[in-house]
Amino acid sequence: MALPSELIVHIFSFLSDRDKLRASAVCSRWRECLFYPALWTELKLRIGDGCNGGGPGSEETLRLEFLMRKFGSYVRELQLELAPIESYVSSLNNEPSAARTDQPPAPGSDPQVPNRWKDAMATYLDQVLCVFTGIHNNRNLQKLSLYGDTCILQQEGLLDSPNRHQIPQGDKKINEIQQLFMELLSNSRQLRWLSCSFMLGLVTPCSLAYLSNRSAETLQHLSLLEHQLGPLISPSEMDRLSNLTSLGLDFSDLTSELCGLLASPRRTPLHRLSLLLNGAALEFKPLDGTATEDNWKALVRVSANLRVYIMALEVDSSVLLRVLKPSLPLERLHLDSYSTLVTDATLELISQQYNKTLTHFLLLRDDPDLPDLSVNRNEDPLVLLAWRCTRLAVLVIHGYTVWSHNLVAISRLRGSSLRVLGVSEESIDFDPDQLVCMEGDPGHNLIKEVSLGLGRVWRPCLDSSLILPEPSQHFHRELHTFSMGM
């Protein structure tokens, strides 16, 4: 006698996803029960990087269509990451190295966008359209997290209107995606988490106006990031979202007016605030009118447990000194650049102002030149930071000279409380005067001393790419972890 559907679903509920698929091979009845809504409340997809087999072309699009057709109308949590556009070009060329060597056309070099880039962008839009076609009527959606890496398109001007017109039905697809996104927001009834980072043409300054009143009351996390001019969150829309506990946005969008709204005692206190400060965008999105010291004081008075995460990408120290206000409750700071230097004065300010709040500090620079921040100083600024910031748990350094004896000092100062100490091997240097008195291999001695200081086995990072992440993707993921950790 055949088992009832309820019992089959109950059996499935105890199995891993892989075992569910194996069990569904028993017969067609078991396969029908495989897609019971209660078994698939959460869906995490990474599209276009080949990690699930196959490239981001038609085969992967077919898989995506199948998943959206089966789960899109009832899934409660959807997390989607789309690979960088250049990986689409690599797949279309069938060359593993194409993502590194096949760059977008330089501005002015050719008025026509090459066919491989047109096809890659068209595939990207097709997949985004597929996702929103599947979920736009989903009233049960509670969490939507989207990331699309389109930074290289923005940098090379491929998102400009004349170039977009060269993509087959590009503007039409973007308009349709925007319309489906607005329908999703208006149809939603219990949305608690909405995160959209660098999705090509998805979010507009008008998007949030379509969010239903019910979801406006239930929404607890909101992060909107785009490569475009102007803020994506207006003060009037922020006023509707009175129950937000975590927020992510461009630093330039955190105006004095918006900060004043967040400091209203009528709102639920804010616990997490993630801010992206992109130096390349400051020419178009200046910091004039952003939150002042008084705004931060008022916000902290209402939200006593507020903690802030900032990523500053290619930002001059003069700008950092301007935005890092004393009352800003900074917990995580990521300074990332290709050539811009962070000065010792900036590190001095950070270690003094945030000595009681800073837990994560990443200092990264993707340049073969390794400046020494301790020149003309009695004390190394990184050692002082480790000494003053008593809650420091994560310290990652690449692209600056770190003297071996200072690295040992950092490990001893923070000990086992420093959960992550990531330093690239090429950033480490040894004092010639100390090498004269040292016995044995200096590298092995360093590993031994730092391991003793931390109370665990430690090694420098041999592959700098492991601690040099793609900035926008890292910010999206770190924002998610930071906001979830309330």
From TrEMBL:
Q: Which InterPro entries match?
A: F-box_dom
Reading the lineage from the top rank, the first entry is Eukaryota
Lineage in the entry? Answer: Eukaryota, Metazoa, Chordata, Craniata, Vertebrata
The ranges of region (Disordered) come to: 93-114
Please identify the protein, giving its name as recorded: F-box only protein 33
Protein species of origin:
Solea senegalensis (Senegalese sole)
Q: Which GO terms describe its biological process?
A: positive regulation of protein ubiquitination
What Pfam families has UniProt attached to this entry? Answer: F-box-like
Q: Which residues form the F-box domain?
A: 1-43
